[in-house]
């Protein structure tokens, strides 16, 4: 019974084990080929992004300013994560730490997958296995990116914040820690809106105070980090609300002002659609049929996905946040007969496997036809279309899940009355 309920997590563990064995057998042959099958072009050594953090630590310990120039990094990448990571400079970090720290982050991620709500039925099980063992998961694990740590923190928070008050406080602390380490998870602190108004205000005040203290303590480095956050070009694997406008500027030669205008227009349209979906009775009634655990993971996952999508451009591995919403989406397929849930789940699954199908598209179809640029642009258009289909649905889920909470419930009631003309 345990194996059946935890099959998605076990599947991800098996994929990680296969890749580890592949690296041990042939790090530049079998390992790279195994990654390619899952849509990931592996670097010549695993945990490259783990070394993004650890290389900066090594340089700073040698009085080299890694925020300006980082010769300790194999790709000379300056440090662009939260300065709080540099608390590790008190440790005797060396290059030998990279595989062990990277492996520990992978273990944290794999362990957090065991916290996911159990799938409802065989179809849901298959979808969940395909989600946890997706190309986005492999990408994140192979790079050893600290988003693995963030995923583990918010997953545990999703479990704790539906328990008694003492555990909920720990859960909010974990989300706050995730936000301080990577910024965009701060948006997930909206889960505290489920609390009574007075308690929510206390949580908010404490969170703001802690965030302000962390910002003040690292201010000079924080300013430099925020200025150095990379902005990718439209044809890379980076996704976000900026992608469409950037495509129009770089591909079609549109004026620079088109980028923010398109981004704002699409974002407002997504928000309006999300509000309409969330304030309707159908989704609200369907979500009521889910378990508290399924609803909690849906709320945390939707907030994480929307926060990263609207706040910045994101490298492909950050799509792992979609895994958090998959138990609820597959449960909605099981308990209702509405085709829309199947479509949204399919779109989310396609996004988790973007690396794989883009690689097949580019290395297969494009190579056989010779239409490299045109087909690459079509693939990117499909990817962005999928995201703009999923995001309003996730916004709608957030609204529907919070509309009965004390504080947002009052605001949503007024908004619903205003839009209905009553």
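Sequence proposed for the structure above (422 residues):
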């Amino acid at each position: 019974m345990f194996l059946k309920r935890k099959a998605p997590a076990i599947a991800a563990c098996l994929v990680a084990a296969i890749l580890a064995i592949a690296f041990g057998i042939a790090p530049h042959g079998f390992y790279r080929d195994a990654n390619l099958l899952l849509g990931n072009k592996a670097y010549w050594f695993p945990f490259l992004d783990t070394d993004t953090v650890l290389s900066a630590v090594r340089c700073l310990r040698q009085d080299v300013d890694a925020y300006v120039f980082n010769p300790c990094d194999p790709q000379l990448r300056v440090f662009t994560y939260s300065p709080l990571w540099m608390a590790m400079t008190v440790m005797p970090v060396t290059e030998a730490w990279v595989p062990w720290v990277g492996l520990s982050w992978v273990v944290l991620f794999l362990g957090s997958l065991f916290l996911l709500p159990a799938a409802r039925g065989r179809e849901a099980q298959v979808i969940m296995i395909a989600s946890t063992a997706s190309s986005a998961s492999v990408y994140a694990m192979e790079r050893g990116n600290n988003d693995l740590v963030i995923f583990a923190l918010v997953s545990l928070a999703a479990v704790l914040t539906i328990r008694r008050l003492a555990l909920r406080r720990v859960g909010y602390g974990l989300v706050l820690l995730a936000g301080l380490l990577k910024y965009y998870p701060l948006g997930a602190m909206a889960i505290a809106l489920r609390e009574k108004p007075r308690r929510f205000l206390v949580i908010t005040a404490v969170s703001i105070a802690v965030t302000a203290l962390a910002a003040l303590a690292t201010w000079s480095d924080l300013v430099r980090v925020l200025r150095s956050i990379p902005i990718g070009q439209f044809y890379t694997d980076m996704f976000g609300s900026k992608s469409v406008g950037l495509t129009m500027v770089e591909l079609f030669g549109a004026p620079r002002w088109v980028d923010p205008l398109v981004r704002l227009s699409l974002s407002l349209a997504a928000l309006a659609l999300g509000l309409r979906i969330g304030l309707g009775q159908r989704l609200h009634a369907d979500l009521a049929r889910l378990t508290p655990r399924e609803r909690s993971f849906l709320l945390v996952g939707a907030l994480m996905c929307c926060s990263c999508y609207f706040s910045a451009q994101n490298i492909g591995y950050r799509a792992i946040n979609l895994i958090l919403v998959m138990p609820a989406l597959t449960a909605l397929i099981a308990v209702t007969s509405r085709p829309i849930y199947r479509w949204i789940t399919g779109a989310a699954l396609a996004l988790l496997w973007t690396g794989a199908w883009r690689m097949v598209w580019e290395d297969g179809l494009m190579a056989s036809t010779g239409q490299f640029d045109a087909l690459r642009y079509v693939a990117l258009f499909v990817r962005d279309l999928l995201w703009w289909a999923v995001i309003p649905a996730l916004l709608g889920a957030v609204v529907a899940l919070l509309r009965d909470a004390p504080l947002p419930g009052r605001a949503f009631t007024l908004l619903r009355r205003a839009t209905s003309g009553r």
